[in-house]
Amino acid sequence: MDDITLRQNILDELEFEPSIDAASIGVAVDNGIATLTGHVSSYSQKETAERVVKRVKGVRGIAEEIEIRVFGTYETEDEDIASRAVKMLDWNVSVPKGAVQVKVQKGWVTLTGKVEWQYQKNAAADTVRDLAGVVGLSNMVEITPRVSANDVKKRIEDAFKRDAGLESQRISVEVSGGSVTLKGKVHTWSERTAADRAAWSVPGIKNVIDQIAVG
To answer: Where is the BON domain positioned along the sequence (predicted)?
Structure first.
């Protein structure tokens, strides 16, 4: 696929996504590498734009340069963001109460603490990323390992086999402590994303190193 066709496919996919303002996002493509520019009103929209582009067939890489334009003073916003984030985390039943701490500096939210499952770490990030005023998010929440490396490897491989969209024999799994390394080759970005998702679904995983090639 040539770059001009790929660029148009990306623009069409962004336009098709109702949760973002595609008119404010610019796209350039060079040898399959998509560069995103422009601006959006929230960190959530910025993440969504990147996620949308990743699923377009033919995209080999992404350079993400989208800006977040937030109005108001940071001094007032930081305190307000932190207060609202703490309340939202307390209300989220997927996040253990008191397990996650919040720090906000110039609109950038940093989450710390310890949880047992990856979905709990993800839930904490999902809870705060849509808050007004958030310009960035660092999810530093740690996951406490509770299973052996062999058990983790087997669970991930079993998850691959259950996923109809994955050719499990094309992906190898290596486990060291709470870190998982995925190797191999798949046909599409969606397959690679599915492999990552399966690896993260196992309790105790703190890091997934994705070395899967797409092509």
So the answer is: 2-70, 77-145, 148-215
Residues 76-104: pLDDT tens digits?
Answer: 588 888 999 999 999 999 999 889 999 98
Residues of 65-93 as b/e, b for ≥16 C-beta within 10 angstroms? ebebebeeebeebbeebbebbeebbeebe
Domains, the chain, ordered by start: 3-68 (3.30.1340.30), 74-143 (3.30.1340.30), 149-214 (3.30.1340.30)
